[in-house]
Design brief:
binds ligand G4F, alpha/beta, UDP-galactose 4-epimerase, domain 1, 11 helices, binds NADP nicotinamide-adenine-dinucleotide phosphate, 7-stranded parallel sheet, 4-stranded mixed sheet, about 350 residues, 15 strands, about 40% helix, 2 domains
Amino acid sequence: MTKTAIITGITGQDGGYLAKMLLEKGYKVIGAYRRGATDTFGKLKEHGIFNQIEMVEFELLEFTNICRAITKYKPDEFYNLAAQSFVGLSFEEPIYTTQVDGIGVLYILEALRQFSPETRFYQASTSEMFGFAQEVPQRETTPFYPRSPYGIAKLMAHWMTTNYRESFNLYTCSGILFNHESPFRGREFVTRKITSHFAHLFLGQIDEPCELGNLNAKRDWGFAGDYVELMWEMLQQKKGDTYVISTGKTYSIREFIFEVGKTCGWDIEFKGESEHEIGVDKKSGRILVRVNPKLYRPAEVEQLLGDSSKAKEKLGWTPKVKFAELCKMMIDADIVRAEQGVL
Ligand code: NAP
Ligand code: G4F
């Protein structure tokens, strides 16, 4: 029998990859989106799947609307990918972020409990919950120490997800995913900010260096297309659980810049310190990166590194795309877009 899945955050990076994968598995996919003044379906159209998804209006802050969607479809699986997902913005909009990323998830859980307790639920949790990491590498048992309103709101949602499993016997899963990127990453995030800027620099469409904040931060970066498979796997087990999903390797922002620069034919070296630091192409002397201290965060997560042993053992997880391949995939895609004038 055809299974039905609701995906919230369908217009985001992960929403597109997950929808594509579920459609390939024969699912009926319901895309939960919020109405905007402008078209937000660009990623789904680029994936070539927009016409295969049934869309339903969905706003995380509107409990009645969540109840209607769940009552109407009573889905086999519900993937909650919707969130105010930008850590930097969460310092400027802490209340909104907490309402959407924390309370919004509680609305969904409560609606499932009331109207569709058989539905299997996936919550998009995050390595940001580890924040000021209390252990290296981070695993399911590592104590949490979030460093942003975003991380704190997501931690509330994580515990609610766990609590509804333990209290009401719902099948719920929390996927603690480390950073995952792709050519569909939002341009506000550092990887895509760099690749989109470098594509324009490479083609000579702009001259100004890319302004960035803290270059020391290190992240465990994987490929979004790999990670959505694990979201699905988590919902196919005997019971719900929490899993860390990561590559087990960590790289600094500088290393990301250097790797992306290689595809553009640049050999980038870094000169100067703190707010005076610049990234320069050794051969031409061209300045490609400049630090702007206005982009520093009030509290920073300096390093994330995950241990996915549990997912490996129970879900058979091994990441396919490696760091260098991911960097190349992202810059190549942005150069093509910039050439076509669609970046
Ligand atoms: P994304 O590209 O920023 O997408 C976020 C999605 O949430 C968009 O579809 C957005 O819709 C929707 N949304 C935001 N606020 C909403 C609201 N109030 N009501 C309904 N929908 C709303 O995020 P992503 O990278 O795909 O990540 C997916 C999920 O995984 C997020 O929950 C994120 O916090 C979490 N996560 C991501 C990573 C990562 O590295 N990517 C790692 C760990 C966890 P609009 O298009 O209308 O804005
Ligand atoms: O790319 P970022 O904005 O991602 P961040 O903060 O790690 O959050 C992402 O990953 C989380 C998983 O750990 C998700 F839960 C979350 O939704 C999101 O997808 O920043 C990465 C690092 C930070 O340390 C930041 O300070 O890059 C540093 N950075 C330096 N310059 C910058 C910039 N980040 C951004 N966005 N823009 C800059 O100019």
